[in-house]
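Okay, can you check this protein?
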Amino acid sequence: MVQPEPEVVPPGLWCYRVDRAHALVGGATSEGGNVYAWLRQSLQLGDPAAAEAALAAFPPDSHGLTVLPFLAGERSPGWAGDVPASIYGLTLATTPLAILRASLEALAYRFALIERRLTARSGDVRVVASGGALLSSPAWMQIVADVLGRPLVASGEAETTSRGVALLALRALGAMPSLDAAPAAEGPTYEPDLARHTVYQEAITRQAWLYERLVGRRTSAIGSEASTVGVTHAFANRLYQEHPCHERP
C-alpha cells in the first residue's frame, strides 16, 4: 500500500521508500499459489472445472480442519521461516476437497492478518487482487472477500508490478502528473457475504490458537515468541527512525 511516510511500520510488515513523499508498506508471504498448485497435484482432484464448482459449493469452515499452510515456511507476519505446514483435525471422513477448501481458507486467513495491520491506521481502502492462481479461481476469490469482509477487486492488468514501477518512474520524471492519470484495468468485484465473514472470524481465532501452540512453542527454545518479536520489533522501529523504510520482522 503506497502512502505518505508512516511514523511506525506495523509489526510483521515491511516498508520501502517509493519516492521523497511516499513509502510502500506491505507484507510478504511464502504461501499462496505454490500451496494451491501443490494441493491440486498431490490430492489428484481431477477435472479443474469440476473441482472449482465443488469448491464453490462447499460451506465455509465446515470441514473440521485447521491448517497452517506453511509449505515453504512463513514470512509476514510471524517470520518463522523454518516452520512446517500442519493440518489438524484429519479423520477417515476427511476428503481431498475438504483439505483443499480448508487450505485455501487458511491462506485467506494469513492475508487477513496482513490486511488488518495495513488498514489499522489507514481507514477504508480498496483491495485489488493479482496473481495467476488466485485470479484463476473465482471460488478462492470469493473466500478471500468473505474472510476480509470487504469487496475484492480482480486486477485486469497482466503485469501489475512492472506497470506500477513504470508509472512511479514516469511520475518521478515529471511525465505524469499523478498516478490517477493512468487508472489500472480491473476485472470483476467479489462482494463479501457478511454471514460467512462472521464464521471465518472464529476460524481465524482457531488458526491463531494452533499457531501459538505449534509455532510459538517452536520459538520457545530461544525465548518466548512475544518477547522475541517484541525486542526485534522495538529494535527495527529504532532503526526505522534513523533509516526509514526498512524491512522488519
About this structure: Helices lie at 33-42, 48-57, 96-119, 132-135, 138-148, 160-172, 194-219, 225-242. The domain at 31-226 is CATH 3.30.420.40 (Nucleotidyltransferase; domain 5). The chain has a mean pLDDT of 84. The beta strands are 2-4, 14-17, 22-26, 66-68, 86-88, 127-129, 152-155, 186-190.
